[in-house]
Amino acid sequence: MVKKRIRDPEVLEDAPPAKTEAEDSGSDDDVDMVNVDFEWFNFKPDIDFHGVKNLLRQLFDVDSQLFDLSALTDLILSQPTVGSTVKVDGEDTDAYAFLTILNLHEHREMKVIKDLTAYLAQKSKSSQALAPLSSLLASSSQIGLVLAERLINVPSEISPPMYTMLIDEIEAAVEDKEPYEFTHYLIISKTYQEIASALDEEDAPRTKKSKGSKANRETFYFHPEDEVLQRHALASGSFEYTKDEGEGMADSKRAFSDMGIKPQGSMILIEAGNFEGAVKAIGKYLSPPQ
């Protein structure tokens, strides 16, 4: 682990390696698994631009085209001692995951932050559950925007150390008089709902049963830690993507539809006083069994 400004690194535990095939031998289908060692690093602008940008594109899904992801990536990389990347083959390789935080008020004059803030404000008005966020975004509140994403096969157990390090780095930055003293934390993420599979409907259009009305569908989390975070939230909820355009959707979006999965955006707003408790709860929830 190569990290700066961690005052108490002993409290951080390495994420466990991915399960091997032998550990999963009880399953019906044989799945090839490999053991890998994950390492945490600070952001490196000369190495991490493309990897972080691709993860941002994955995080924002079809709506990623609404933002200047290059400018957003540059902003993230401009604060190298706040946030982390996770890699498996050393520091000079692409990130498998990242987590960072941006001060929306501090960077409010940047076009990409203006665009992103307007987008979040619009989405917050689409759901009563997200209503408290709308007024906060319109005020001078110090909101820390948490951005986190990982490749699909990366285990969720990497997230507790990343969040723990983030808290420590924020505390160190505040001691250094840097603008990281937040009133609220806003986590941007993704959820999904099960819908009728497009492939099944093609095979049996008249007999396929509905997965239920939109209002009654259960919401699932791409990131298991989000289920914990929302329990500590002042407000949380999912929203429809702007660029979800049916037949004109991206290939990745259509693939989800074919499998009967409808991705959505998600926001979780946590008051500053509750954030550390939420992070500790993530660690307990995702800790491997003893």
UniProtKB/TrEMBL annotation:
<feature type="region of interest" description="Disordered">
    <location>
        <begin position="1"/>
        <end position="30"/>
    </location>
</feature>
<comment type="similarity">
    <text>Belongs to the BCP1 family.</text>
</comment>
<dbReference type="Pfam" id="PF13862">
    <property type="entry name" value="BCCIP"/>
</dbReference>
<comment type="function">
    <text>Involved in nuclear export, actin cytoskeleton organization and vesicular transport.</text>
</comment>
<dbReference type="GO" id="GO:0015031">
    <property type="term" value="P:protein transport"/>
</dbReference>
<protein>
    <recommendedName>
        <fullName>Protein BCP1</fullName>
    </recommendedName>
</protein>
<dbReference type="GO" id="GO:0005634">
    <property type="term" value="C:nucleus"/>
</dbReference>
<keyword id="KW-0813">Transport</keyword>
<keyword id="KW-0653">Protein transport</keyword>
<keyword id="KW-0539">Nucleus</keyword>
<dbReference type="InterPro" id="IPR025602">
    <property type="entry name" value="BCP1_family"/>
</dbReference>
